[in-house]
Amino acid sequence: MKAIKDSVHDYITLDPAAADLLDTDAVQRLRHIKQLSTVRLVYPSASHTRFEHSLGVYHLASRALDSLGIEGDRARHVRAAALLHDVGHGPYGHQTETVIERHTGQHHDEVGDLLGRTDAADVLEFHDLDPDRVAALVRGEGELGQLVSGELDVDRMDYLVRDAHHTGVPYGTIDHERLVRELRYSDGRLVLEEGNVRTAESLLLARALMDATVYRHHVSRIAGAMLERASERLIASGIDVGTFRRMADHDLLVALREDVPELGRRIEYRDLYKRAVWAELGDVPADVVELDHAGERAAERDIADVAGVDDRDVLVDVPGRPTFTEAASRVVVNGVPQRLEDASELVSGLRAAQRAGWRMGVYAPEEHVDEVAAATEAVLGVRAVAP
Amino acid sequence: MKAIKDSVHDYITLDPAAADLLDTDAVQRLRHIKQLSTVRLVYPSASHTRFEHSLGVYHLASRALDSLGIEGDRARHVRAAALLHDVGHGPYGHQTETVIERHTGQHHDEVGDLLGRTDAADVLEFHDLDPDRVAALVRGEGELGQLVSGELDVDRMDYLVRDAHHTGVPYGTIDHERLVRELRYSDGRLVLEEGNVRTAESLLLARALMDATVYRHHVSRIAGAMLERASERLIASGIDVGTFRRMADHDLLVALREDVPELGRRIEYRDLYKRAVWAELGDVPADVVELDHAGERAAERDIADVAGVDDRDVLVDVPGRPTFTEAASRVVVNGVPQRLEDASELVSGLRAAQRAGWRMGVYAPEEHVDEVAAATEAVLGVRAVAP
Amino acid sequence: MKAIKDSVHDYITLDPAAADLLDTDAVQRLRHIKQLSTVRLVYPSASHTRFEHSLGVYHLASRALDSLGIEGDRARHVRAAALLHDVGHGPYGHQTETVIERHTGQHHDEVGDLLGRTDAADVLEFHDLDPDRVAALVRGEGELGQLVSGELDVDRMDYLVRDAHHTGVPYGTIDHERLVRELRYSDGRLVLEEGNVRTAESLLLARALMDATVYRHHVSRIAGAMLERASERLIASGIDVGTFRRMADHDLLVALREDVPELGRRIEYRDLYKRAVWAELGDVPADVVELDHAGERAAERDIADVAGVDDRDVLVDVPGRPTFTEAASRVVVNGVPQRLEDASELVSGLRAAQRAGWRMGVYAPEEHVDEVAAATEAVLGVRAVAP
Amino acid sequence: MKAIKDSVHDYITLDPAAADLLDTDAVQRLRHIKQLSTVRLVYPSASHTRFEHSLGVYHLASRALDSLGIEGDRARHVRAAALLHDVGHGPYGHQTETVIERHTGQHHDEVGDLLGRTDAADVLEFHDLDPDRVAALVRGEGELGQLVSGELDVDRMDYLVRDAHHTGVPYGTIDHERLVRELRYSDGRLVLEEGNVRTAESLLLARALMDATVYRHHVSRIAGAMLERASERLIASGIDVGTFRRMADHDLLVALREDVPELGRRIEYRDLYKRAVWAELGDVPADVVELDHAGERAAERDIADVAGVDDRDVLVDVPGRPTFTEAASRVVVNGVPQRLEDASELVSGLRAAQRAGWRMGVYAPEEHVDEVAAATEAVLGVRAVAP
């Protein structure tokens, strides 16, 4: 069996199908998509890729299947889905997924057509693996799909540990060996065995701390907003969205530099906009919180107008209300599987902390920050907060 | 400058006074007192000592002083206090401290008389360090004392990271470099600088997770209760409490084996009592929760009576109501120092989680577990819960 | 002072000049040049960049300067040189440096003109730093230059530890804190203080093990040879070498795909040539070992001719004879600075081991491996060895 | 299956026999024997025990057996032997083994009688494990015995990694996952599979660097010599050697303090003798290098006589000539199993380095160092070297 050295899980041993899938363009492309996209502008060590993450998810899926006693054909499909779960990502991963969804209606976990038309299709067929079944597992369907995409999935377990390892931040540390070992099925639902309320909580806490210090860091959000806007303009300039979606990071960087040069250069050399406004949930009117994509764009135009700047110089970034998938994970307490939010006193506190950490941002080139701040208050009724 | 290799902080560089203090019997004795006493019966790798912890606290104190810009005489006293802060511990550290307090009225952070009569006194004098001032710092007195003993002290920062490293548990991980770097004084109180609510929360979360998985593990509590009872009998058998307090772990193990042979042997070879009762806070009558030492002993005799066993075969272990020192740590928010419990939505959830994790235990030799469980229900009205 | 989190050294604190230099395009470009270029085709976790490495070298330089007691202007220039030492690298770092040297006569540590004409020039001037002096330090000139580029330089210390961390290989581990702490000057030469023969040896051993398992891995060498050849063709196709040198990894990948599509695709998707020949030093005629670039190309044409394949399908890869810079590092033994090769019994063994590990390779597309192997024996008298 | 958290290998899963063996007094006693005895006087973090090491050896043995495809009864015996391989150690492990061998003729790997008469005997019988077969495996007998005790045994792999982890030294790092995975049997000999000369060398290098910086550190050697002499006097004072052998560290510390108070106190509080003489192999006459135990004692008396000090104040410490077990490990090269010393150019260099690192020591209380140095030159013709 082929073994690959990984800096998180040490050796990862591949089954024959995985070894062949690894050599497909669809998977090799993931070498060129960074796991944390713009986060590495804050944490320089975080340049790891979705390729190594996919290997890690494959590894944890194998361990979970062993622990659950699942073998044979079913296990082979789950392992393939684990390895392929990210092939639907566009360049810069999550940072472009809303762009792609807006233009194609497709989420990154819709990999069916990708598996059907890439070289991965032949490899799957050769190993008697059904692409539709693999695609359904990637979407999290069925009992086994929960292992790949769900509240207790191995995707989450790998990225928390891996992102912590590569950023150098001490917060993503979870006991993944224990989590994997304590998984059980109860009436078709994946649950953690008795005695693991704390193990489940640690997953939540890791997520919450990583959100606050890594995933939602304002510098990464600013760069992400710039990237999203630049991508929109790139597509508007005539790049086909199908082509866009199949790009890797290097393709996008070069394409932006050529077709959206101002933003392209700023992203490449980390010459970022600054925060004109950075407002808490309580300081933002409800209708602003609810703004959709078109609403954000309209607001940008209005703010630019009032501020007397080009409307490319205003970025309005209103994140969705905080969600908390992990709160729905299930753990057995006194013999009964319960949702973690019912079993743990911590969940409501974490929810509140996440709401407290929510921020709306308005970004502008450094020289226009003051006008944009003032205009935002005039247009949206949101006051600038000294960042 | 002398440098010592440490598995947590790499090299620790000692100032001349620290280098000399290190060679005193008072500090060398800490080589023979394990940091986590009975915890290593659960986590075999956790046999680290208060000696290496003291070096770690010294190291973090030095870094904090540098960051705060405190130098000269004041800094030298703080560093000495950091190195000496644990010399007052009896054998097995926290596990015997209530025994010692009951018999002497002295807490382990009362090191004044120790510093006065040991070889450390000469070293302090030689380096122009005032033993009384050092002792006051160990008690946490004054502005600088907060660095050694307080809600944001370097003691806590070292032990969380060190205990995690040695147990192998991934939960004690805090960003101690950041914590130390962000300390400030505000009106004489030690606070964390603006932008560190999450840093402060991480300290709390680390503590809560370590409590649940390490410090309050039931096996460690059972062994601790056995050790405490054995120590009481040792003192009752005629060992002077002053002598007892100055023992190190090896002295106590040998003394117990000779003078309290039954429990001594059980502790040495990890042949522990089992849980007859393990009850949550809501299932324990308030007057039982309030039992003091004498009350616990009386309850043991009553239970033994009803169960028809020797009263040495019943251990009643009622921990105090959960406290949460770290909740009072201060962090600057929008320019104003606030108590963390006011600035963070997480604290109340953590408090609730700690209450939920509170357990009263009644322990007995395996062969008497059933009788003791029944008798406990009859005597105290507390039902056994299947552990 | 600005502090950046690093996964190897934890927080790296920047002086004001470094903080400003970091924002220049010259340094930001290093975010897009991977430290280990083609090595990550073997070790997927190794996608770290020259940007984070430059920060690490800056950090170790600061520590070394502190330990040596060097301050002020001299220290500021060394720190700037440490941060800038890699700005002269072309895309894919070492893998393209011979191409660039052939076409420009310039080595990657010639950064003088780069510092003169980029935005870094203004920053240096603003902070009263002399670009020529910085450039001389990068070339390793003068007493202080040895810290930046020499047998005991901090560049080496950082990359060994960092490359080990990111590959996951346990071999690059050196005691960099001790190395930095034990540096001294003796008659203008940087040496390790008395008692450090073993510390110096460990640097050698780390290098030797990393060479064998990481830096000289055959898969990385094959990809490197493909990349070098593709770069030659790219330049031949009309790309100006100055433009080429200033490219980053993403630029090169895209340019190759467009202008050298066959090799470009293979490199991007790791569809690599295979070893037709893999021969030890003793099995290769001396005149073949001595082949220069033109000689290698001629040999490729001859082999292709005999094998009946396109001459693009043959890559001859003859590395230089092994060298061993670290053997010349100096360490004080019984009061006298000695070259490590005179003080350590290990060096000759390591030299021999390096000669034993030397391999000449001839690579070809998988389907032509047999013909190319046979033709290589006919043309160069080198027998294929089953890899 | 019972799982135990380990700071080196994460979770260690125990088979039913191992879980029961773990609870025996014979194995629990190992909790009280430190792995590195006097080394922790140099590296304070190194207070790990033979208990956790035994678990680690058990774990690696399980992995090796899996990799070799060995199952059933044979595997169960190997796993039991791995767990029990150190039960024959006396207090302070290797530091007292020559004392015990001199008085009993028994080496620490002679565990047959221990397994026969302790509570482990019943557990072995209950699980259908043959104590004689287990004892033979511990002695390294038979094909499978090589896994437990031999040049490529899992004991070595665990202790190198574990000792590095706990000391904090970066040198013991080996790729144990790869080593275990690449083990094969060839004609009944354990060998490393093709392509692992470097893997085998790394084991050697790790050992050599750990020897130099950890295992043979002069402070540890001085304390070890004091401990050995104190143990001799303890036995001379009437302690039965059988009783002595069954002591754990704490028993010995207390016994020494009572019966050999002067040395006992010095060992407990690290108040150590100093080096009067520290001489290289080339500076020591051959007949002195060959001194046996009686010869060393006679030399001490003569030196004390000449120096005019009590003969307890002189410790002569002549280590055996360096050996290099790992050099005999076998690795497959071009299809043929070879001894590493024949396959690797490094071995002779390492041998030479080990000879160069050999030191004879003569130790004395600080106040007598000068007289003892002079007397040693007069009596043995060995010159003091400034340490």
UniProtKB/TrEMBL annotation, chains A, B, C, D:
Give the matching CDD domains: HDc
Classification via SMART domains: HDc
What is the protein name stated in its UniProt record?
Answer: HD domain-containing protein
Indicate the secretion signal residues.
Answer: none
Listed InterPro entries: dGTPase-like, HD/PDEase_dom, HD_assoc_2, HD_domain
Q: Look up the record and give one Gene Ontology term from the biological process aspect.
A: dGTP catabolic process
Q: Ranges for the HD domain? A: 50-160
GO terms, molecular function: dGTPase activity
Q: Which organism is it from?
A: Halorarum halophilum
A Pfam family this chain is assigned to:
HD
